[in-house]
Amino acid sequence: MATGETPVLRMQDILHQLCAMPTASFVEDRVVTFIEQWVKQRKRLALSRDRHGNLLIANKTTSKLPRTVMVAHMDHPGFVAESMTEARTLQCRFHGYVRPEFFVGTRVRFFDRDDEITGTVTDVRAEANGRPAGATVRVSKPVATGSIGMWDVGGPRVKGGKFHCRVCDDLAGCASALAAIDLLLAKKSKAPFALLLTRAEEEAFIGAIAAVKNRQLLKKTDRIVSIETSAEQPYAQQGNGVILRVGDRTSIFHSAYTSFLNTQAEQLAKLDKTFKHQRALMPGGTCEATVFDAHHFTAAAVCVPLGNYHNMNAASGKIQAEYVDLKDWTNMVNLLAAACANSADFTGDHTALRDRLDKRFKQFERFL
Fold first, then answer.
1. Share of the chain above pLDDT 70, in %
2. Measuring CA to CA, which residue among 223, 222, 283 is closest to residue 252?
């Protein structure tokens, strides 16, 4: 680390670098390349993948304790170029959910090998349920089939303590886990930990479902921590810290494991007065913890509040950059590192809570 450089700045370097990568469901190749290079620079890590393209980064350890597996997804709602029907007319698939009324007239940037080609959406094709399936884009020049298209709202930048980018969901989540791994490596943690990076989450968790069905990368004893950037809620706002996500739109997560994460957060707050955390049900969408919970894994979740969820600014009705609060994001990094490092403290159930309740009962039982 260079003189004068702080761990926080180094964390943010990972955030900036990864969120600069173009990505969309089923075309996460550039993110994969970034991850491959990142792991190569860290000899204490091993990288593996399943036949569906999900990645697992794991530390090399002889510990027999159950493993903490952080999970984040490598895709974001976006376009995939299909064919040029005229000299400057491109037909695209669209994966992920963005309301159709945001499309027409909005600018898109395609990443064609080393070239970047701009265009404007002229038409959107939606399914019967209103979910966008494809679009027609007027482009400045021909675009190769398979090229990634993303909303043309700019790359990584910081303004007023907020990190803005065309994608935070969920590359900012991926980056938080990578930064947490660097903290664990720096502390030479012996606890077993891993990061599962999934594909095509925006098309209803296709990569995560593949990971639990085929079980090439996961163990049944793994404890899952799903990481997200989740749409900001009136009761869970930016600047108030990392969120212990007790559930999503679909399900409630593992009570005892969530309690363990809460204990880790409380301990961090005692040691660092700048650390903030909150606890909330985040119903803005369904996250991958639901997939793991449904398949009988011990699963909990953390997130940071996200502005302009899926690039939709509801107030203006326009597509804009997503953004997260940098302090919230840094708090999430520190919580993830603590949860992994102290994983041996999790008994698998509510033993600690039950002991506290029993102690209180013994104190006052005589008054019943």
1. 98
2. 283
